[in-house]
Write a structure and sequence with these properties.
The protein has 382 residues and is an alpha/beta fold. The protein folds into 3 domains: 6-116, Nucleotidyltransferase, domain 5; 121-214; 229-342 and 359-370, no CATH class. Helix content is 52%, strand content 12%. It has a 6-stranded mixed sheet, sandwiched between helices. It has a two-stranded antiparallel ribbon with strand order 7-8. The radius of gyration is 26 Å and the shape is globular.
């Protein structure tokens, strides 16, 4: 099929509806491709010339189809599912029409196609490990909360006896509680599952830490305050290829840590972070804030300033620090440098009077430093 310009696919769980379009967006053929066997998908892609564009929405099961398409020499492209649905709002809906609409968006002139990131296999592998660990951690937290709730429903408070019920001391406190047999059985079952989850999480963390220590990018990220092995691993996994972000501001927006204006009819509702973001990266960035504020005077100062301006919205201070960390991460990874925090000169010292006002080589909030090539004065050691 030499005249095929794009193959658009509407992907479902058990099958895909595929439509071939020519350069004029005219429908040439329609197929139903079952997902029973990967060889069926390979045979389907053999119908087209190598290099033919294939478009599909970034649904839950796109990776294997995109991998098969690329292995057969096709040009795989992902569409942002939510943005594509918004663009098709009000149109008649069917599997065939959805596929045709995707194909027309790809062929339209200008930057109309709502492109999503087609993560390569290595990035997907990193994300799978990180998200698996995060799932186990959340399951463990849910079980711990359930056990606390079980005790609260019986009016049992253990704060004075043990601050952590799941430590060695806390387990002794739990063992000494007077509970009915069925309550004791429920509690013991929760504790056994928590212990199993602890073993799985610990085993996964050992693998992740060993891998991130051998990655030069991990060493750069771990030089940032508050960023340890697991956080560095999660950032690399969720960021993917750094080249797709032109600057640190774009990375912060991707993580939902960039405040956006909210104005209408001369009314200013303040700034809010976007909801459309990589929620995993946002979570990992905010997790690093507490450690960064403790270890870094610079981050502590930023947190204090934003918190003082927003006394009733403490979350804004955490978002501000998370944004600064992400912008620093982009800057340092781009330059292949580790983080160096410039210490202020002591009051009254001669060095203070001779200090010139120069750009901090690790100041991510300076757009001129992060967006333009380094100047000579930026290359000087602090």
């Amino acid at each position: 099929m030499e005249s095929v310009a794009v193959v658009a696919m509407d992907i479902h769980k058990k099958f895909s509806k595929a439509v071939a379009l020519d350069a004029e967006a005219q429908v040439l053929h329609v197929w139903r491709v079952d997902h029973d066997d990967q060889e069926v998908m390979e045979e389907f892609f053999r119908l087209f010339a190598p290099g033919t564009a294939v478009v599909m929405e970034a649904t839950f099961n796109w990776p294997w189809i995109a991998d098969v398409a690329q292995a057969m020499g096709m040009n795989a492209n992902l569409a942002h599912a939510q943005r594509a649905r918004e663009m098709a709002k009000g149109m008649a809906k069917s599997d065939r029409k959805d596929a045709i609409f995707l194909g027309k968006l790809y062929l339209a002139a200008g930057d109309v196609f709502p492109r999503a990131y087609l993560a390569p296999p290595e990035v997907r592998r990193l994300r799978a490990h990180f998200r698996q660990r995060l799932l186990l951690v959340r399951m463990r937290a849910a079980l711990k909360n359930a056990l606390h709730g079980q005790l609260f429903r019986r009016g049992i408070l253990t704060d004075d006896d043990a601050s952590d019920l799941f430590s060695a001391k806390g387990r002794l406190v739990l063992a000494g509680l007077e509970l009915p047999d069925y309550e004791r059985d429920l509690m013991e079952r929760k504790l056994r599952v928590i212990d199993q989850l602890n073993d799985h999480i610990q085993a996964m963390e050992e693998v992740l830490k060993k891998e991130i220590r051998q990655d030069p990018r991990g060493q750069i990220l771990m030089s940032l305050p508050g960023v340890a092995e697991i956080t560095a691993y999660s950032w690399l996994a969720e960021i993917g290829e750094l080249e797709r972000f032109p600057n640190g501001r774009a990375l912060a927006a991707y993580a939902g840590c960039l405040p956006l204006d909210d104005e209408s009819a001369d009314k200013d509702f303040g700034k809010r972070t976007g909801r459309r973001c990589n929620k995993f990266l946002r979570w990992a960035a905010i997790e690093a804030v507490s450690g960064a504020v403790k270890k870094s005077p610079r981050m502590r100062s930023l947190h204090s300033r934003v918190k003082a301006r927003n006394p009733k919205q403490a979350g804004k201070a955490r978002i501000a620090v998370a944004r600064e960390l992400l912008e620093l991460a982009h800057l340092l990874l781009s330059r292949q440098e580790t983080y160096r925090e410039r210490r202020p000169a002591r009051p009254g010292s001669q060095g203070r009077t001779r200090t010139r006002r120069t750009s901090d080589p690790n100041r991510a909030s300076q757009a001129a430093v992060s967006a333009r090539p380094r100047r000579k004065r930026d290359q000087a050691e602090p």
